[in-house]
Amino acid sequence: MKPLNLDKSGCINTSSNCVVWQGPDIACISLCKGDSVTDVVYKMATELCVVMDTFNLDNYDLSCFGSGPCNPADFKALMQLILTKICYIQECSGCQDSCYPCGTTPPVVMSAGARSASLQAYSLPGDTVVPIAPVFYYTNQYGDLVTTMPLTDYVIAIGNKVNQLVTSITAIQATLINHAARITALEDAPAPVFVIPQITPVCVLPSVATNMNIVLAAVEQQFCQLRTATGTPNNIFTNIQKQIPNLNSAPVLSGAGGTMASLPGWTSTIQNEADSLGNLWITIGDMRSALQNILNNLIPSGCAGISLTLFASYDTGSNSVTIFINGTIPASFVNTDSFGTRFTITDIYGSATTANVDIISIVNNLTGFNIPLNGTLLNGLTNLRIEGNPNFTDVNTGSQCQSCLEYSILNQGSCPIVTYTTTSDAINYSFLSDSNTQTYTVELWNDLGNVLLSSQSYISSSVTTYTGSFEATLGVTYKLRVTINIASVITTCAFTVVTV
Question: Taking burial as the number of CB atoms within 10 A of a residue's CB, which of 18, 176, 383, 441 is the most buried?
Answer without folding.
Answer: 383
